[in-house]
Specification:
mainly alpha, flat, 14 helices, MetI-like fold, 2 domains
Amino acid sequence: MQRYFLSRILQSLVLLFGVVMLVFFMVRITGDPATLMMPRNASPAQVEAFRESMGFNRPVLVQFWDFLRGAVVGDFGNSLHFKTPALQLVIQRLPATLELATAAMLMAILIGIPLGLIGGFNPGSVLDSVARGVALLGQSVPNFWLAMIMIIFFAVRLGWLPSFGRDEWKSVIMPAFALGLSTMGQIVRLTRSSTLEIRGEDFIRTAYSKGLLPLTIYSKHVLRNVAIPLVSIIGVQFGYMLGGSIYIEFIFSWPGIGQLLEQAIGWRDFPMIQALAIFTSLAVLMLNLLTDAAYMIIDPRIRYGAR
Protein backbone atom coordinates (compact mmCIF):
# COMPACT_ATOMS: atom_id res chain seq x y z
CA MET A 1 0.00 0.00 0.00
CA GLN A 2 2.87 2.36 0.78
CA ARG A 3 4.40 1.62 -2.62
CA TYR A 4 1.07 2.39 -4.27
CA PHE A 5 0.79 5.77 -2.57
CA LEU A 6 4.40 6.63 -3.33
CA SER A 7 3.75 5.91 -7.01
CA ARG A 8 0.59 8.04 -6.96
CA ILE A 9 2.45 10.92 -5.29
CA LEU A 10 5.23 10.64 -7.90
CA GLN A 11 2.65 10.71 -10.70
CA SER A 12 1.04 13.78 -9.15
CA LEU A 13 4.38 15.57 -8.98
CA VAL A 14 5.06 14.79 -12.64
CA LEU A 15 1.60 16.09 -13.59
CA LEU A 16 2.13 19.23 -11.53
CA PHE A 17 5.44 19.86 -13.26
CA GLY A 18 3.63 19.49 -16.58
CA VAL A 19 1.04 22.06 -15.48
CA VAL A 20 3.76 24.50 -14.44
CA MET A 21 5.49 24.07 -17.80
CA LEU A 22 2.22 24.43 -19.72
CA VAL A 23 1.22 27.59 -17.86
CA PHE A 24 4.64 29.16 -18.40
CA PHE A 25 4.87 28.48 -22.13
CA MET A 26 1.21 29.31 -22.89
CA VAL A 27 1.89 32.90 -21.90
CA ARG A 28 4.69 33.03 -24.43
CA ILE A 29 2.86 31.15 -27.19
CA THR A 30 0.11 33.78 -27.22
CA GLY A 31 2.67 36.49 -28.02
CA ASP A 32 5.12 38.80 -26.31
CA PRO A 33 4.06 38.72 -22.63
CA ALA A 34 5.26 42.28 -22.06
CA THR A 35 3.04 43.55 -24.90
CA LEU A 36 0.07 41.49 -23.65
CA MET A 37 0.39 42.63 -20.04
CA MET A 38 0.90 46.32 -20.74
CA PRO A 39 -2.00 48.65 -21.68
CA ARG A 40 -2.68 49.04 -25.39
CA ASN A 41 -1.74 52.74 -25.28
CA ALA A 42 1.70 52.07 -23.74
CA SER A 43 4.64 53.50 -25.62
CA PRO A 44 7.46 51.27 -26.94
CA ALA A 45 9.76 52.69 -24.27
CA GLN A 46 7.32 51.74 -21.52
CA VAL A 47 6.93 48.24 -22.94
CA GLU A 48 10.70 47.80 -23.10
CA ALA A 49 11.13 49.04 -19.53
CA PHE A 50 8.43 46.63 -18.34
CA ARG A 51 10.07 43.78 -20.28
CA GLU A 52 13.36 44.47 -18.57
CA SER A 53 11.83 44.79 -15.09
CA MET A 54 9.97 41.46 -15.48
CA GLY A 55 13.02 39.71 -16.94
CA PHE A 56 11.38 38.92 -20.29
CA ASN A 57 14.51 40.01 -22.15
CA ARG A 58 16.48 37.06 -20.76
CA PRO A 59 16.73 33.60 -22.43
CA VAL A 60 13.52 31.56 -22.17
CA LEU A 61 15.16 28.67 -20.30
CA VAL A 62 16.54 31.07 -17.70
CA GLN A 63 13.07 32.58 -17.29
CA PHE A 64 11.55 29.11 -16.91
CA TRP A 65 14.10 28.13 -14.27
CA ASP A 66 13.38 31.29 -12.27
CA PHE A 67 9.63 30.72 -12.64
CA LEU A 68 10.00 27.10 -11.49
CA ARG A 69 12.05 28.09 -8.45
CA GLY A 70 9.48 30.68 -7.50
CA ALA A 71 6.53 28.28 -8.04
CA VAL A 72 8.08 25.70 -5.70
CA VAL A 73 8.02 28.18 -2.81
CA GLY A 74 4.71 29.78 -3.84
CA ASP A 75 6.22 32.91 -5.38
CA PHE A 76 4.37 33.68 -8.61
CA GLY A 77 5.21 37.36 -8.61
CA ASN A 78 3.03 40.35 -7.85
CA SER A 79 -0.37 40.90 -9.37
CA LEU A 80 -0.18 43.60 -12.02
CA HIS A 81 -3.54 45.02 -10.95
CA PHE A 82 -3.44 44.72 -7.13
CA LYS A 83 0.34 45.22 -6.78
CA THR A 84 0.49 42.48 -4.12
CA PRO A 85 1.75 38.84 -4.20
CA ALA A 86 -0.54 36.78 -6.43
CA LEU A 87 -0.63 33.73 -4.16
CA GLN A 88 -1.67 35.87 -1.20
CA LEU A 89 -4.72 37.08 -3.13
CA VAL A 90 -5.61 33.50 -4.11
CA ILE A 91 -5.47 32.39 -0.47
CA GLN A 92 -7.63 35.34 0.58
CA ARG A 93 -10.33 34.36 -1.95
CA LEU A 94 -10.11 30.62 -1.26
CA PRO A 95 -12.49 30.49 1.78
CA ALA A 96 -15.37 31.90 -0.29
CA THR A 97 -14.87 29.30 -3.02
CA LEU A 98 -14.54 26.50 -0.45
CA GLU A 99 -17.79 27.62 1.18
CA LEU A 100 -19.61 27.66 -2.15
CA ALA A 101 -18.20 24.32 -3.33
CA THR A 102 -18.89 22.62 0.00
CA ALA A 103 -22.48 23.88 0.09
CA ALA A 104 -23.02 22.77 -3.52
CA MET A 105 -21.60 19.32 -2.84
CA LEU A 106 -23.66 18.88 0.34
CA MET A 107 -26.83 19.76 -1.59
CA ALA A 108 -25.90 17.29 -4.32
CA ILE A 109 -25.21 14.49 -1.83
CA LEU A 110 -28.12 15.07 0.55
CA ILE A 111 -30.65 15.24 -2.30
CA GLY A 112 -29.04 12.97 -4.89
CA ILE A 113 -28.28 9.87 -2.84
CA PRO A 114 -31.73 9.48 -1.19
CA LEU A 115 -33.47 10.09 -4.54
CA GLY A 116 -31.26 7.51 -6.25
CA LEU A 117 -31.85 4.91 -3.52
CA ILE A 118 -35.61 5.40 -3.46
CA GLY A 119 -35.85 5.40 -7.25
CA GLY A 120 -33.72 2.27 -7.54
CA PHE A 121 -35.81 0.34 -5.03
CA ASN A 122 -39.13 1.54 -6.51
CA PRO A 123 -38.69 1.51 -10.30
CA GLY A 124 -41.63 2.93 -12.19
CA SER A 125 -43.05 4.78 -9.18
CA VAL A 126 -43.73 8.49 -8.87
CA LEU A 127 -40.57 8.97 -6.80
CA ASP A 128 -38.57 7.11 -9.43
CA SER A 129 -39.93 9.51 -12.07
CA VAL A 130 -38.84 12.43 -9.88
CA ALA A 131 -35.38 10.90 -9.51
CA ARG A 132 -35.02 10.38 -13.26
CA GLY A 133 -36.26 13.92 -13.86
CA VAL A 134 -33.65 15.37 -11.51
CA ALA A 135 -30.94 13.29 -13.19
CA LEU A 136 -32.05 14.49 -16.63
CA LEU A 137 -32.17 18.13 -15.57
CA GLY A 138 -28.78 17.91 -13.92
CA GLN A 139 -27.19 16.50 -17.06
CA SER A 140 -28.88 18.83 -19.55
CA VAL A 141 -29.45 22.27 -17.96
CA PRO A 142 -26.48 24.69 -18.23
CA ASN A 143 -25.62 26.03 -14.79
CA PHE A 144 -25.17 29.63 -15.97
CA TRP A 145 -28.65 29.62 -17.56
CA LEU A 146 -30.15 28.12 -14.40
CA ALA A 147 -28.39 30.78 -12.32
CA MET A 148 -29.96 33.62 -14.30
CA ILE A 149 -33.43 32.02 -14.20
CA MET A 150 -33.15 31.59 -10.42
CA ILE A 151 -32.16 35.24 -10.00
CA ILE A 152 -35.15 36.42 -12.04
CA PHE A 153 -37.63 34.18 -10.21
CA PHE A 154 -36.41 33.95 -6.59
CA ALA A 155 -34.62 37.30 -6.23
CA VAL A 156 -36.37 39.75 -8.56
CA ARG A 157 -39.97 38.52 -8.61
CA LEU A 158 -40.38 36.83 -5.22
CA GLY A 159 -37.65 38.65 -3.30
CA TRP A 160 -36.86 35.57 -1.20
CA LEU A 161 -33.12 35.39 -1.77
CA PRO A 162 -30.35 37.95 -2.44
CA SER A 163 -29.23 38.08 -6.05
CA PHE A 164 -25.53 38.70 -5.47
CA GLY A 165 -22.79 39.00 -2.87
CA ARG A 166 -21.77 37.00 0.20
CA ASP A 167 -23.40 38.96 2.99
CA GLU A 168 -25.64 36.41 4.75
CA TRP A 169 -26.30 32.68 4.87
CA LYS A 170 -29.09 32.95 2.30
CA SER A 171 -26.60 34.30 -0.25
CA VAL A 172 -25.12 30.85 -0.79
CA ILE A 173 -28.37 29.00 -1.58
CA MET A 174 -28.85 29.96 -5.24
CA PRO A 175 -25.19 29.80 -6.36
CA ALA A 176 -24.69 26.49 -4.53
CA PHE A 177 -27.76 24.92 -6.12
CA ALA A 178 -26.83 26.17 -9.59
CA LEU A 179 -23.28 24.87 -9.18
CA GLY A 180 -24.30 21.52 -7.64
CA LEU A 181 -27.20 20.54 -9.91
CA SER A 182 -24.98 18.81 -12.46
CA THR A 183 -23.27 16.74 -9.76
CA MET A 184 -26.65 16.02 -8.19
CA GLY A 185 -27.87 14.59 -11.49
CA GLN A 186 -24.81 12.36 -11.80
CA ILE A 187 -25.20 11.12 -8.23
CA VAL A 188 -28.90 10.33 -8.74
CA ARG A 189 -28.25 8.47 -12.00
CA LEU A 190 -25.34 6.44 -10.63
CA THR A 191 -27.03 5.63 -7.31
CA ARG A 192 -30.25 4.57 -9.04
CA SER A 193 -28.53 2.32 -11.61
CA SER A 194 -26.32 0.71 -8.95
CA THR A 195 -29.31 0.15 -6.67
CA LEU A 196 -31.22 -1.52 -9.49
CA GLU A 197 -28.35 -3.98 -9.91
CA ILE A 198 -27.95 -4.63 -6.17
CA ARG A 199 -31.61 -4.94 -5.16
CA GLY A 200 -31.86 -8.46 -6.61
CA GLU A 201 -28.77 -9.81 -4.87
CA ASP A 202 -29.03 -12.62 -2.31
CA PHE A 203 -27.77 -10.54 0.61
CA ILE A 204 -30.53 -7.97 0.03
CA ARG A 205 -33.22 -10.66 0.07
CA THR A 206 -31.65 -12.07 3.23
CA ALA A 207 -31.75 -8.66 4.87
CA TYR A 208 -35.45 -8.32 4.03
CA SER A 209 -36.15 -11.83 5.36
CA LYS A 210 -34.55 -10.87 8.67
CA GLY A 211 -37.11 -8.10 9.02
CA LEU A 212 -34.64 -5.21 8.72
CA LEU A 213 -36.10 -1.79 8.10
CA PRO A 214 -35.67 -0.35 4.57
CA LEU A 215 -33.60 2.53 5.99
CA THR A 216 -31.19 0.02 7.55
CA ILE A 217 -30.92 -1.94 4.30
CA TYR A 218 -30.30 1.26 2.32
CA SER A 219 -27.62 2.58 4.65
CA LYS A 220 -25.74 -0.57 5.68
CA HIS A 221 -26.01 -2.86 2.66
CA VAL A 222 -26.80 -0.89 -0.47
CA LEU A 223 -24.99 2.39 0.14
CA ARG A 224 -21.75 0.65 1.05
CA ASN A 225 -21.69 -1.11 -2.32
CA VAL A 226 -22.59 2.07 -4.17
CA ALA A 227 -20.03 4.14 -2.27
CA ILE A 228 -16.97 3.44 -4.46
CA PRO A 229 -18.29 4.96 -7.72
CA LEU A 230 -19.91 7.74 -5.67
CA VAL A 231 -16.57 8.62 -4.08
CA SER A 232 -15.06 8.89 -7.55
CA ILE A 233 -17.76 11.31 -8.73
CA ILE A 234 -17.63 13.37 -5.53
CA GLY A 235 -13.84 13.70 -5.65
CA VAL A 236 -13.70 14.69 -9.32
CA GLN A 237 -16.68 17.05 -9.15
CA PHE A 238 -15.47 18.80 -6.00
CA GLY A 239 -12.23 19.60 -7.81
CA TYR A 240 -14.29 20.93 -10.72
CA MET A 241 -16.32 23.10 -8.33
CA LEU A 242 -13.15 24.60 -6.90
CA GLY A 243 -11.65 25.47 -10.27
CA GLY A 244 -14.61 25.65 -12.62
CA SER A 245 -17.06 27.87 -10.76
CA ILE A 246 -16.03 30.97 -12.70
CA TYR A 247 -19.44 31.49 -14.37
CA ILE A 248 -21.43 31.02 -11.17
CA GLU A 249 -19.17 33.30 -9.14
CA PHE A 250 -19.28 35.93 -11.87
CA ILE A 251 -23.10 35.85 -12.17
CA PHE A 252 -23.69 36.02 -8.41
CA SER A 253 -20.70 38.35 -7.71
CA TRP A 254 -19.36 35.71 -5.34
CA PRO A 255 -15.90 36.84 -4.13
CA GLY A 256 -14.04 33.58 -4.77
CA ILE A 257 -11.16 32.42 -6.94
CA GLY A 258 -13.50 31.91 -9.90
CA GLN A 259 -14.43 35.58 -9.93
CA LEU A 260 -10.77 36.46 -9.38
CA LEU A 261 -9.82 34.41 -12.46
CA GLU A 262 -12.43 36.18 -14.57
CA GLN A 263 -11.10 39.55 -13.42
CA ALA A 264 -7.48 38.51 -14.00
CA ILE A 265 -8.27 37.46 -17.58
CA GLY A 266 -10.00 40.78 -18.24
CA TRP A 267 -7.12 42.72 -16.74
CA ARG A 268 -4.52 40.54 -18.55
CA ASP A 269 -2.96 39.91 -15.14
CA PHE A 270 -0.76 36.96 -16.14
CA PRO A 271 1.00 36.47 -12.78
CA MET A 272 -2.44 36.10 -11.20
CA ILE A 273 -3.62 33.70 -13.93
CA GLN A 274 -0.50 31.57 -13.46
CA ALA A 275 -0.97 31.42 -9.68
CA LEU A 276 -4.65 30.46 -10.02
CA ALA A 277 -3.97 27.76 -12.63
CA ILE A 278 -1.20 26.10 -10.64
CA PHE A 279 -3.01 26.40 -7.30
CA THR A 280 -6.19 24.86 -8.75
CA SER A 281 -4.23 22.02 -10.35
CA LEU A 282 -2.53 21.28 -7.04
CA ALA A 283 -5.90 21.19 -5.26
CA VAL A 284 -7.31 18.74 -7.85
CA LEU A 285 -4.29 16.46 -7.54
CA MET A 286 -4.61 16.42 -3.74
CA LEU A 287 -8.31 15.58 -4.05
CA ASN A 288 -7.43 12.67 -6.32
CA LEU A 289 -5.01 11.32 -3.70
CA LEU A 290 -7.68 11.65 -1.01
CA THR A 291 -10.12 9.82 -3.29
CA ASP A 292 -7.67 6.93 -3.65
CA ALA A 293 -7.32 6.78 0.13
CA ALA A 294 -11.11 6.72 0.50
CA TYR A 295 -11.29 3.80 -1.93
CA MET A 296 -9.05 1.74 0.32
CA ILE A 297 -11.03 2.61 3.44
CA ILE A 298 -14.36 1.67 1.86
CA ASP A 299 -13.29 -1.49 0.01
CA PRO A 300 -10.64 -3.74 1.64
CA ARG A 301 -10.14 -5.56 -1.68
CA ILE A 302 -8.53 -2.42 -3.12
CA ARG A 303 -6.37 -2.06 -0.02
CA TYR A 304 -5.08 -5.62 -0.28
CA GLY A 305 -4.57 -5.36 -4.02
CA ALA A 306 -2.40 -2.26 -3.60
CA ARG A 307 0.10 -4.08 -1.42
